[in-house]
Amino acid sequence: MVTETHYRALLNFYFFLLVNEGMTVAVSHRAANYVQKQLTKEPSQKIELLLIRTMVKFLEKYRSSRIHVGGTPPKSDWKVKNSQFVVGWKEFLRTCESQYSVILVLRYLLSYQPQIISEALDIPVGTVYFRLGRGLEAMAKSAPIQTLARMR
Amino acid sequence: MSDKREISCFFCREFIALYVDGELDPRRRKEIDQHLENCQECGDIFRRTEVAKKVLGELKPIQPSKELIKFLQKEKSTWTDFLERFGWSKWPINLRWGVQLGSVALMLALFVNFFPWLKLAEKVQNFRNAPYQVKEVSKVPAPPVDVAAVDEEMEKQTPEEPVKIDEAKTAFVATTPTPTTTSTPTVVAAATPKPVAPTPTPAPKPQGYVWRGTINVDVLSDELTKRVTQGVKKLGGIKAGKVHLGWVQGNSRYYHFTIPEKNFDALTKLFEGEGKFKVQKMAHPRVITGGRMRLIVHLKGKTVAAPTPVPPTTPAPSGAPDDASVPGGNEQEAKDGSKNQGP
Question: What is the predicted ipTM?
Fold first, then answer.
């Protein structure tokens, strides 16, 4: 069963990788429905793994498409703390490779353990750490991030 | 020894994530610390990476409202949303049914009105006037054929090439003949389809057949020719062309005749008794009726034995007396007697 926590994880994942509220709601809705269907088919699946797998799958699928979910979502009252950091993060995403940014979000924003990420994405743990390292290096070299760091 | 060996810059950067997360074991961490003290470039990268991680920490997860999560939990689609806008679920059941029936009726009316019926009718018409129609000859009533008229028509046409029996193509040897009114499907050409009103199509022309064959013998003699001629006549054979049975044509003898279909087996045995007999059934515009079949047989010999001079009483045609080039040959003429009769 997809709970509120899972919805929050989905919304956060897509928000930080798509940086678009409308798209985030639309893709989260579809991903949640997909997860729910998969769980109905095979209830023995680990929901965390399925959720991460679905997140990445739907991100690749809908990254460049414009989709619409029926109905008008409630007025956004998302509490985004430190919005200037989000702007810097958005700038960083333009230059960073998708595979690194996905791992960074999963690890540092959604706080999934590298072992779970590796199991979900079917890659070795070493690869997860490698991508984390490369992502952090890319952040270290990113000018907007360094500017934000100096502001801080 | 291994504790004293300093790790490389590449190796050091491989552990950057683990180092920043604090998940390295103490021994490895100590090695990296030693390397960072000595290597300014790596130290700079590590410091900036730690700063980047702190920036990541500033990116706090968003807190979506409960309304938004409830909104996502509902099964939503554009159609259901459209209906909800009009409070569809609150409408009385009779009204809902009425609206649904009205919608279906409207769609049907639009379909009937705008469907391209004319194009469909044209397609059906074209399909019915297909260029080829396969019909069984046996089911088609054979119209009375004026044989003389057919022969005249054949005469006007370009004469056929001389008979060539390709042995490789002779599919069967002395098989039972198929009667002319068999159920063999025949392709009858029809007029080019035109999008006009259907006109009564004329009855398809019946298909005729001719059996072309050769008897290969070692020595071709006059006795053999006479024997074959008499055998053919005994079996009810009547000459069908201008020339007589056994007409001399170089190193072969020419037999163009009709016989009753029931005697074909006996004829086959007769010919096989004289030599190697091969026959092939071929389509032909001339239709022979009355339970008879038309044959053109060449009696060929490797050598000709002692040619006896035969006084020519009838001038033989210069070309090959094929059925096409020999007009007027039919069973009616044959019954007339000595008219056109050869020696």
Answer: 0.78
